[in-house]
Amino acid sequence: MKTRFGHWIGGEEVTTRSWLDNINPSDTRERIGEYAFGDATDVNDAVAAARAAFPAWSKSAPQLRHDILRRASDEVFARKTELGHLLASEEGKTLPEAIGEVGRAAQVLAFTAAEALRLDGRKFAGLAGDSEIDVTREPLGVVGIVTPWNFPIAIPAWKIAPALAAGNTVVFKPSELVPGSAWMLVDILQRAGLPKGVLNLVIGAGAAGGALAGHADVAALSFTGSLDTGRKVGMAGIASTPMKKLQLELGGKNPLVVLDDADLELAVECALNGAFYSTGQRCTASSRLIVTDGIRERFVARLIERLERLKIGHALADGTDIGPVVSAAQWQKDLDYIDIGKREGARLRFGGAALERATPGHYLQPALFTDVTPGMRIAREEIFGPVAVVQAARDYDEALALSNDTEFGLTAGICTNNLKHANHFRRNAHAGVVKVNLGTSGLDYHVPFGGLSNSSYGPREQGHDALDFYTTTKTAYTRCEL
Ligand code: NAD
């Protein structure tokens, strides 16, 4: 069985000077594999390969691009249990969640395959009446893609697929914590028929990502990760010559508002799923629960009853609801924030303890704080773990104000049976995605995804809108009569 995995550069799997252990967070004794650990040298090689492949790929037939993405989708779907097993082993989400994510990646590949056939343009009459104007979508060149660890196959799929469908070539740097799913996705796409150098993989950490962000031959960079890293990537992309087109998908501190008239069970379900499933490690997690006075104590009591029943354990074990935290560093960060919350004067109403299980892993009991005021760090900063805060609001107006009191703006949800408040919230919540009587997490792949303020920078991802980032327009005039 293969245990060492190299980069993919110019259609070949290449080895490297340094290697990285891919460790299972459910059982830290288990090494999933040894993966190449690259730096700027590997990035330079990968960019050169992508640059050489661009002229032919950018002129390739849309049908060819479609067929390759479609074949890759079919293989990902057919192997979703095996790939889900790998994903759950390296990231720590439960097996059903991981298989679901792999299925999503397959759907994204299939949807985007068809996008290759739908690359559209527009036609105008010249205003002087003597010309016709064609506005066409053009690929950008070499696109750099840098991804986080929390969706190890879905995020790479929803960036790589539209980049390729539009005729770009790609250098992809996944998170160093989850190289296994990334390697498999690239392997599948290569075998689906991509010409050499069209898609390149460099596994590595910040140094490799930074080299990509500053590389002069990279025309555009799509990044998903934290706000702090995103800022650095953005600065490097703008400082490089020529300046890069940038898409930065960043953090969130997403509010779920629960009003007095909400269906209690539905609201608790939305909160439980949104705040704690996938170990709370979702950019769209409902980490702030803003609850009005008339329902708050009932809501908190019921949420705690549900939290008590959750099974926290090995990601692959039957019946596990919540897997481990992804890494020792993230686990420590979550615990630190739980401490900060207590010191700030918030009341820890449930959980927050490190847990021991049969296997050594980064297990953490989900934590719920109440008595949280808007200035507290646990109410303002993204924790990115199974930690949620309940904030008190007198009425809808105060709930909306609290909801919008954030530097982020990714998703926002409201649970209410009041049409007036639901509609008002839909229009006035400061977020790129708004949900009414639904959890803040989860989005279909055929609609645009992205946030406001410090949650996003640049064009939206997913759906048909994804092509806005991966293409530019060319405006071409032709004289009508000579
Ligand atoms: P991170 O910022 O630590 O790392 C993201 C990626 O950037 C990784 O591949 C990492 O190796 C790379 N990187 C690190 N330093 C770099 C540098 N100086 N230059 C270039 N690249 C560098 O984020 P993470 O911990 O992997 O992911 C969690 C974050 O991602 C959370 O903030 C979460 O909200 C966010 N996220 C956002 C979305 C979204 O769509 N908005 C989706 C998923 C996750």
UniProtKB/TrEMBL annotation:
The active site is at E249. InterPro entries: Ald_DH/histidinol_DH (IPR016161), Ald_DH_C (IPR016163), Ald_DH_CS_CYS (IPR016160), Ald_DH_CS_GLU (IPR029510), Ald_DH_N (IPR016162), Aldehyde_DH_dom (IPR015590). One of its GO terms (molecular function) is oxidoreductase activity, acting on the aldehyde or oxo group of donors, NAD or NADP as acceptor. Residues 18-475 form the Aldehyde dehydrogenase domain. Pfam families: Aldedh. It comes from the Bacteria. Keywords: Oxidoreductase. Transmembrane segments: none annotated. PANTHER family: ALDEHYDE DEHYDROGENASE-RELATED. Belongs to the aldehyde dehydrogenase family. This is Aldehyde dehydrogenase. It comes from Caballeronia hypogeia.
